[in-house]
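Example (one chain per record):
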Amino acid sequence: MANNDRRASSDAPSPSSRQALRQQAEEFVEEKAAQSPEDLEAMSPKEARRTLHELRVHQIELEIQNEELRRTQAELDAARERYFDLYDLAPVGYCTLSEQGRFLEANLTAATLLGVVRGGLVKQPISRFILKADQDIYYLHRKQLFESGEPQSLELRMLKKGGKPFWAHLAATAVRDANGAPVCRMILSDISERAEAANATRVMALQMTESAEHDFLTGLPNRMLLNDRISQAIASAPRKTKHLAVLFLDLDGFKHINDSLGHPTGDSLLRSVARRLVECVRASDTVSRQGGDEFVVLLSEGAHWVDAAIVARRMLRAVAESHSIDQRDLHITTSIGVSVYPDDGEDAETLVKNADTAMYQAKENGRQSYQFFTPAMNVRAVERQSIEEGLRRALERQEFVLHYQPQIDLRTGAISGAEALIRWMHPTRGLISPAEFIPIAEDCGLILPIDQWVLREACKQAGAWVEAGLPVVTMAVNVSATELRNENFLDGLFAILGETGLDPRSLEVELTESVLMKHAESTALILQALRGEGVKVAVDDFGTGYSSLSYLGKFAVDALKIDQSFVDQISPAGDGPNLVTAVIGMARSLKLRVVAEGVETPEQLAFLQAEQCDESQGFYFSRPVLPEQFAEMLRTGISVPSAPLSVRI
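Predicted structure:
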C-alpha cells in the first residue's frame, strides 16, 4: 500500500498540469451541461462511453487533488505546531512590541524570563520590567530604533514580577505589521551568568590593580602609586609656584625587633606604625610603604618647609609612643629626611632620593630626628654609596685587617690584654677608620659577617701568640647588637673557640650599655652562658648610657671600661676626676674590674693609678698596631716616656 501511495505521489501531475486538467474538466462539464437532453439521448453508445470515461478520469483527478490538499494541509498544520513549539520553547524570548513599547505578543520563554503568565504580558509596557536606573538607556535606543530604522542592541537590568533583577540583552528590529503600523520585533536574552562573570573579571582586575599599587602588609600605597601621585601633584603645580614636600622615614633598630621577636611581631609593628603615620596627615596627603621598614609621605596642597617640619615632629612623637603588640609594649623610633618641591627636585625620583639622603643625615645626627635636604648632602650620599658598594666586596677580597691595642695592668705594668680593632685597607683610598664604615655596615646589614670575621681572626691570632710562646693575654672583641641578637651567636662563638683552640678564659666580649639593655632578659641568659664557659664580659663605653647599679647587678659581667670622654676630663678644672672616681668606686662595690680607655697623658695615668684603677689603654701606651708589632711588644715590653709608672713586661 505504501509503495502504491509513493507511486501515485510520484506519478501525480505537476501543479500547472493539474490546473490545466481542472480547467478542462470544468469546461467539459459546462459543455455537457449546456447540451440539451435531446442531444444527450442522441449520443451514440460510443460517445456515451467516452463521455463517462472522461467524467471518471476527471473524478479521479479531483480525488487526487483533494488528497494532496489534505496532505498539504496536514503538513502545514504540523509545521505550524513545530513552529509554535520552537517559538515557545526557544532559549531566548521573542516578542513584538508596539511603537509605544507595549507587548503585542510574546513567546513562553519571554513570559518565563519576566516571571508572568504568557497572556499577562499583552498590553503591558516593557519599561515596567526594566530597572528604573536603566530605563533612560532603553528609551534612547527605542527612539533611535524607530527614527533611524537601524537595529538596536543593548544590555540592561530587568526585573521579574517579584522584583528579582537580572541582566538582559535586547536585540530589536523595526518592522511594519499587516496594517502597516510600525512595530518592534525583539529578542530578549538572560545574560546574568555572562554579566556576573564579566563583573567578577572586573572585580578581579580591580583587585589586581589594587594589589599592584598597594603594599600587601599595611594596605598603604606602594612605591609605584606614590611616584604616580607625586608626578600628578607636580603637574598640578602651576609654574612651580605650588610647593609640596616628601618625607622619607626609616625605623631605627627595626631589624633587632625582627631578629629577636620574629617576623610576625615585626609585621604587626609595621602595621601599627603605618596607622599612626596615616593619622598624622590630611586625607589629601599620601603615606606609602617603600618596603622593609621604610615609609615615604607626600604632603601635597601647598606644603612648605614649616608644614613639613610640623608633620615630621608629629610623626616622631607618634612613632615613639609604645606599641602594644602581642601583649608586649614595644618601643621604636624613626629618622626622617625631608625634600621640598621645587627647591630639592622637580620630579618624583629626585625628590624621593634627596629625602632619602636627608634621612641618612638624620640617622648620623643621632636618630629620632628629622633633617631637611641640602645640596651638600649629595656629596656625602655618593660617598656613602661608594663605601657600601666597597663593603660588599671587602670580605671576599680580604681587604679587612685587625690592629691590636694593648691593655696595661696598672699595678704591675704588664700587658694584660689586647683589644682587636678592625681597619679597612681600601684598594684606592688606603686605610679607612671603622668610624666611617661600621655605621654604614650596620644600616645595610653587613655588620654580622664582619663581626664574625673579626671574632674568628682575633681568636686565631691570640692562639698564634700562645703557640709562639708569648705571654698569654686576654683578647677583647667588640660584639654588636646585631651579632648578639643572632640566634646562632653562642653556637658560632663556641665553634670558633673550638676551631682556633683558644682557651675561653682568654676571650673577653665587649658590649655597650645600650646593647645590654635591649631585650635585657634574653641578654642576661646569653651572658650567663658565656661566663659559664669561662668567657669574660666587659661593659664598653661605660658612663655614656644607663650607668646604673640596678642593671649592672642584673647582668653577669666582669669589667667596666670607662669611656674616653670621662678620661679626657681628668684635670683640676673639670668634673672628670669626680666622675671617674665614682665609676671606680661603683665597680669595686660590685667586685668588677675597671679599665680606663683613651689615656693619653701622664696626668691621666697618675690619677688612675692613685684611684686604683685596674687597667688602662690609650695612645699614651701605644696606638693600635699590626699583629707582628704587638707580638714584639709582648716580647720586649712597652717603653712609656715620662710615665709616672715604669711600664714593663
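Caption: Residues 45-89 form the longest helix (45 residues).
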